[in-house]
Amino acid sequence: MKYLSSSATIFASLQWLFFIFANTVVVPISIGTAYELPYAEISVILRSSLIFTGIACLLQGLIGHRYPLMEGHSGVMWSLMLNLSMIASSTGTSLQEIGGGIASGMLLAGVVVLILGSLRLISYIQNVFTPMVMSVYLFLLTFQLILIFFKGMLKMTPEGKLDLPISLFSLGVVLLVCLLKIKGKAVISNFAILIGIVIGWIFYIILFPAEQNLMTQSSTNLHLFPLGAPNLNIGIIAITFLASIINLSNTIASVTTSSAMFHDEYCQNRFDRSYLLNGAYSIVAALFGLVSYAPFASSIGFLESTRIFQLRPYLIGGGLMILLGSVPFLGNLLATLPVTVGNAVLFVAYFQLFGTSLRSIRDQTFNSITIHRLAVPVLVGVCIMNMDPELFTTLPTLIRPLISNGFIMGVLLSIFLEMFVKWEPEKISMNEVEV
Fold first, then answer.
1. Which residues contact 144 (CB under 8 A, 6 or more apart)?
2. Of 156, 103, 138, residue with least CA distance to 288
3. End-to-end CA distance of the chain
4. Would you say 261 and 127 are in contact if contact means Cβ atoms under 8 Å apart?
5. Distance of alpha carbon 5 from alpha carbon 421, whole angstroms
6. For the segment 101-151, what is each residue's pLDDT rounded down to a tens digit?
7. Tens digit of each residue's pLDDT (9 = 90 or more) over 177-226
8. What angle, rounded to 10 degrees, do the helices at 234-246 and 75-85 form?
9. Beta-ladder partners of 294
10. 1 inside domain
11. 20 to 30 A Cα–Cα from 278, which one of 183, 308, 318, 369?
12. Is residue 402 a part of any domain in this protein?
């Protein structure tokens, strides 16, 4: 692996910092807002999120899977927690009760994963997530993230209309990063994401000074279970527990893909160590009102985009995240990064994840019959992702958050098809695929 100079390491570390921060900062703010927490409490959760995300990255890089894979708030759990908050008004359940049920489910999942990991029984769960299920997972993850970042880079006015100047500026940032990546020399191409963030940030301040909003963090003391004290709401606990188990697929997809990328031999110990940390993270997240953590399979796209595979910059980036959360001024400063700029750059970074999804099926066989094992779960999942959540209000309250989550339904449908349908494999290349 090519050695990085000191200056290249510095820039690569900053690039990792921006990548981790941009993927982190929106999550605690959106959760705190959805559960109607006071601003001071949201500030504390944000600060906790920055610190713990940095710690989680360091531990995974040093003693967990030991790959440069961002450990961050799981998209599966994030969307589930937001969906669950929406059922409060229609069911008469308080947000505190829903938050407490989520905490109970995450605590239960964390303990179960720790026990299974300690007894080395997690491999039985891995058997459920077959290569085809993982391919479906990667495709759905790609579509889910791209939709999130595309919507995030477009600015809406208070009237609900498109803010054309800022939205066009975001598209300009996308074009800039793409050109740097495609046309730039090796050094420029590798740091296209960092360059895009810095240039986009500077020009955003110049062109839209009225949009600047310096965030101030409160000195409110940290306390346990800010979303609600644990309770025995069985429906919420069951859905949260199921989503937490599906969340393990993040580890399987990330570590398996990284192993192939780094040309390492498959090692169950990497999985086991990562699972043990994930179990501990789930417990900590429940305690402090955070979204559960998981290795980001989307980090593969980031690595393939930057072509910087060394572990050291990733570890330094994680350490800098801890510093941001520990020093309020630094966190406040980086929090002024325009959301539209951050989403525009991440939109480009995750183009590579689509390539990873395609490569995951290159050894698979598809004809007019077997194409259903991929097409059905992926397309059904994408369709649900794009449906208005209000359409599901006629469903029973307990299953509504599950059915309305396209990502979870797509993965569950894929697991069902792989378990109960016997697919006849035929060895043909991707160039000979019949559909």
1. 75, 79, 385, 406, 407
2. 103
3. 40
4. no
5. 52
6. 999 999 999 999 999 888 888 777 778 888 899 899 889 988 887 887 888
7. 899 888 767 667 777 888 888 899 899 988 888 766 554 555 556 778 99
8. 160
9. 72
10. no
11. 308
12. yes
pLDDT at 381: 93
What the block records as the tokens of 81 is: 């927690």
Alpha-carbon gap, residue 303 to 352, rounded angstroms = 9
Average pLDDT of span 339-362: 82
Phi-psi region of 65 (alpha: psi -120 to 50; beta: other; left: phi over 0): alpha
What predicted TM-score, i.e. pTM, was given to this entire model? Answer: 0.79
Look at residue 310 and tell me if it is in a domain: yes
Within 10 Å of residue 1's Cβ, how many Cβ atoms? 9
Q: Identify the three-state secondary structure at position 293.
A: strand
Closest of 351, 363, 374, 360 to residue 257, by C-alpha: 360
For residue 235, what are the domain limits? 6-432
- Which residues, including other chains, have CB under 8 Å from residue 160's CB and lie 6 or more apart? none
Question: Looking at the 3D structure of the chain, how many domains does it have?
Answer: 1
Q: How many helices (H) and strands (E) does the chain have?
A: 22, 2
**What is d(CA 129, CA 347) in angstroms, rounded to the nearest whole number?**
27
